[in-house]
Amino acid sequence: MAEPARRGLGWLEPALEVLGRRYFRPESGGRDWSARDWARAVGGALVERLGPALSEAAAACSVELPRVCWAALAAARLDNERRLEAHRRALAELAPALEARGIATVLFKGLATARHYPVASVREADDVDLLVMPEHLAGAEASLRELGYRVWAGGGRLSSRYALAYAREPGNGEEVELDLHPSWHEVRLAGDGEHVLVGDTCERVLRIELDGTEWSVLPPSVELYLAAAHTVLHSFRTLSVYLDLSVLLAAAGPDALDYAGKLARAMGRQRHLRHGVSVAIDLFQLEVDTEYKSLPRRLGVPLAVRVGYLGFGRRFLPSSLVMELLLRRGLQQKLAFARWVLGHKPQEAEGTHVAGRRPKRLLRGLRWLKGTLLRYQIPGSVPLRP
User: Fold this and answer.
1) Count of H helices and E strands in the chain?
2) How many Cβ atoms are within 10 Å of 109's Cβ, its own excluded?
3) Res 144: pLDDT
4) pLDDT number for residue 385
5) H/E element, 210
6) Distance from chain centroid for Cα 348
7) What b/e sequence results for 4-32 when a residue is b if at least 16 CB atoms lie within 10 Å of its CB, and e otherwise?
8) Where does the pLDDT of residue 272 fall: very low under 50, low under 70, confident under 90, or very high at 90 and above?
9) What HEC string does 39-94 produce?
């Protein structure tokens, strides 16, 4: 049996091989990795937010793991399932409150993306994201406050441009964070609540059912467009964002990718799409048309270099601002985005704008230039932290 192709990612090779076999190549064979290989792979997967998916994939592929690895993965999966259950309860409570006020929303990322996974509960959960029309933000916030949420970040004069984050501590002690987005990577909700707009393009939303409640979600082509943008603009770009993109590619098919490519070209994000798709297909060895492969990939730049893997269980992530400035087309667009980010103060309280504070806000915005160093750790050695 041929040995699986290596990606040059050291510690993560066993985890990526099993994830690829479970999600995209069920007929392929696997390699017999050593206990040391698996200890390192599980440590890397946990830091990269792939733990719950790897736990399910290893079980589905009948992979034998060392006991400490099974324990670490099981703990990550159970913790993720608790968060997802809390998110589902929060949405079930919020739905009637929004309906009573006539507020249309679109559920995206999180539970919306999880529906494409073979087992939805293994998609790493963080928060709940809802797309809301700017004129409905006040009503949505009122609904959240009635349910015991407090403002965690955002608000004030910038609330029509940036996400507003809310948090609540339910009775079982599981904190839920919910973000309201007036727009996200050029995607916004149309006035009829039945369509989403990407620039001048209008697409009808889809409907899914969660716990007996119907929610609007994005069409596959727009999900792909957003997932590709997210691989660049997500502030903490673990490899889980590329697993999302790979799962979406497999579920949506080539037609949706072609349409996402048209959206990306219209919005100046074709480099983002090529970068995200190129990394995703190399991580999980998918087949995609050449036109969606990035220039570094076509020039033969190794995957490890393109994702910032330094070896020795370390991976460096350039800042989202740097990545965006490199990939955005046009000097005007680059400058506009830099002004947008550098002027953003995530925890600006409501109504706190004071003349003369813009220079301070710009200085604080320089923190977006800072990169992130991820350090993998073997389970049981020291706390697993980035």
Assistant:
1) 15, 13
2) 26
3) 93
4) 43
5) strand 206-210
6) 24
7) beebebbbbbbbbbbbbbbbbeeeeebee
8) very high
9) HHHHHHHHHCCCHHHHHHHHHHCCCCCCHHHHHHHHHHHHHHHHHHHHHHHHHHHH
